[in-house]
Each structure stands twice: as structure tokens, then as C-alpha cells.
Specification:
By secondary structure, the protein is α+β, with helices and mostly antiparallel strands. It has 6 helices and 7 strands, in the order ββββββαβααααα. The protein has 2 domains: 118 residues, Sandwich (Jelly Rolls); 41 residues. It holds the Pfam family AraC_binding.
Length: 172
């Protein structure tokens, strides 16, 4: 089967056998699953322990908005379907908890942005917006926060002031 979205999952217990495009992979607890949109795969629990995992289905438009692109500018493609990066695993678990929980929308947006930034770091595919322009936009955003700290505002307000995506703003 395949999914139209990016699949990002954290195996929290047990182990999974994953066959992606005819190639076998093993994902034990602590692994992160990284599947591209429309990538054919089969998966099954292996071993005696119950398989448990947290999975997020992320729309390609969100990944593109985060600046995650291939060097030639095309859509991000994960090179391997299983990662053993413990920091990425923790970030996936935290994002899943936030997005399924009762966090406010700004906190959920931050969790998703942290996840996409972690994926960008892990894959090396995060587009850079250029330091001088970015530094000025961050300074402008800080001035806005200082001037409006007693008022209610959210991440959408800050991204409008900064003129950058939430994903890039939160990375700074």
C-alpha cells in the first residue's frame, strides 16, 4: 500500500519489518520511519513484543512550506525509510503528543515546525533563507514582541511580522 502524505513514525515498542519498494528493512523500538508520498510499502510486526508506534501523516505542501526541498528544488525524498537518530525519535514523539493532545494551536504549530526542522537537519535538505535578511526579520519580530507583550498574539502574527514561515521563524 502507499499514502499520499509523508509518513513519519516513531516505533516505541516492539519491532517492525518494513518492505519498501522491494527492499527489506528492520525498525526496532527507538527507530523512526520515514516514507515518501506514494511510496509503496508493506509492514508487519515482528517478534513477541507488541508493536506500538506514533505516526504522523504530513501533507507535502507543509513539507514544501518548511523549505524542505531537494538540491535541484524538487520535493523532498527520504533516502532511507528507517532512521536510528535518537534526537529525531524524541522529536517525533513530542510532536505526536502535542498534535494529538490539547495543546493550543500555536504550541501545535511549534511542535510541527520543530519536527520538520529536525527532519531537515537529519536529511540535510533544509533550504537556507540567507542570514542577513533573516537576522533583520528576527530583530523586527523581537521588537514586535517587546512592544506588544501585554497583548494576545500568536504564531501567525509573528510570522506575518517576520515575513517568513513558522518553520523558519522557529528555527531561529
Amino acid at each position: 500500500h502507499a499514502h499520499a502524505e509523508y509518513v513519519v513514525g516513531a516505533v516505541t515498542r516492539g519491532a517492525e519489518s518494513l518492505n519498501v519498494e522491494g527492499r527489506p528493512h528492520h525498525a526496532p523500538a527507538g527507530s523512526v520511519l520515514l516514507l515518501n508520498p506514494d511510496q509503496p510499502h508493506e509492514n508487519a510486526s515482528i517478534g513477541d513484543e507488541t508493536l506500538e508506534y506514533h505516526v504522523l501523516y504530513i501533507a507535502p505542501a507543509l513539507v514544501e512550506a518548511a523549505g524542505l526541498v531537494e538540491p535541484g528544488g524538487g520535493p523532498l525524498r527520504f533516502e532511507t525509510p528507517v532512521s536510528a537518530d535518537p534526537r529525531l525519535f524524541q522529536t517525533v514523539c513530542e510532536a505526536h503528543l502535542s498534535l494529538r493532545g490539547r495543546d493550543d494551536p500555536a504550541e501545535q504549530g511549534e511542535a510541527l515546525a520543530r519536527l520538520l526542522a529536525a527532519i531537515g537537519r537529519q536529511t540535510g535538505r533544509l533550504r537556507d533563507e540567507g542570514r542577513p535578511a533573516r537576522d533583520e526579520r528576527i530583530a523586527r519580530t523581537k521588537r514586535f514582541i517587546d512592544a506588544h507583550y501585554a497583548e494576545e498574539f500568536g504564531l501567525a502574527d509573528l510570522t506575518a511580522v517576520a515575513g517568513m514561515s513558522a518553520f523558519h521563524l522557529l528555527r531561529r
